Amino acid sequence: MQKVPELKIGTRIDIVFENEINTSNAHYMKALIYDIEGGKITISQTTPALNRNFLNRRVLITFLASTEKRVLRFGVRAMLTDLIVNYQISSDKNVEALILKKSAQAEPIDFRMHFRVKLPSQSDISLFIKEEKINLIDISLGGARFTCPKSYPFRYGDPVKLRLVIGSKEFAFEARVRNVLQPQEYSSNKTIQYIGVEFDHDNKQMEALLGKAIMDIERQLLSEGKMT
User: How far apart are CA 47 and CA 49, in angstroms?
Assistant: First the structure.
């Protein structure tokens, strides 16, 4: 029987609203566990930040942990119950903190379809439009975000042909544009645009290779202490 790890103080976590799990518009927020007292979990303010409008929402707290054979992602279901504006983390420092009430024990989970991972600089994953390599920001089994020149006239809902390279393997497939964002006014580079796409394919080999690559990246970042 697989031993299920417990949440610990200092663990870096990702939080997703329960009703958004495995949806393409899910919001994954990062935080750090400050304290655990019974079923009460105190965490840092999330990135992006949450306000009191989100209280009483059910969430899934997810974290990576090493088991006997490999690194797995585990989840703990909880409810967001309070926001503290002056939580004391040291004798001379107060910060915002969130309070969660745990409603279940940790269990292994797999929602990699829409769980995005940022690529390290030495990643062997590349994305191409036609023959041009584009700047891949993050990727999941279900889609990707990237930047590209404004010369590409992307519109919401448009189909786009992509080529994904994972190591020595190449996969040509179609995706659909889900987000088109222009750079902010103060951005130093106003010639690019930010694109989010949802993959539309049934290539099991690509899905298996990409899933393994995503897990390998998470394992690498965890071992280097870069899961922030």
Answer: 5
* CATH of span 12-108: 2.30.110
| Cis preceding-peptide flag for 149 (omega within 30 of 0) | no
| 3-class DSSP assignment, residue 61 | strand
Q: Give the list of residues 6+ apart from residue 45 with CB closer than 8 angstroms, or none.
A: 31, 95, 96, 97, 98
What is the pLDDT, as a whole number, of residue 215?
77
Q: Is 117-223 a domain of CATH 2.40.10.220? A: yes
Residue 53 is predicted with a pLDDT of 93
Q: What angle do CA 141, 138, 162 make, to 5 degrees?
A: 65
- Dig out the tokens for 145 from the structure: 């975000």
Asked if residue 96 lies in contact with residue 87, where contact means CB atoms within 8 angstroms, the answer is: yes
Spans of all domains in the chain:
12-108, 117-223
Q: Which two tokens stand for residue 28?
A: 């994954």
| Same fold? 12-108, 117-223 | no
DSSP state of 112: T
Which is more confident, 201 or 159?
A: 159
Structure confidence at residue 228 as a pLDDT band (50, 70, 90): very low
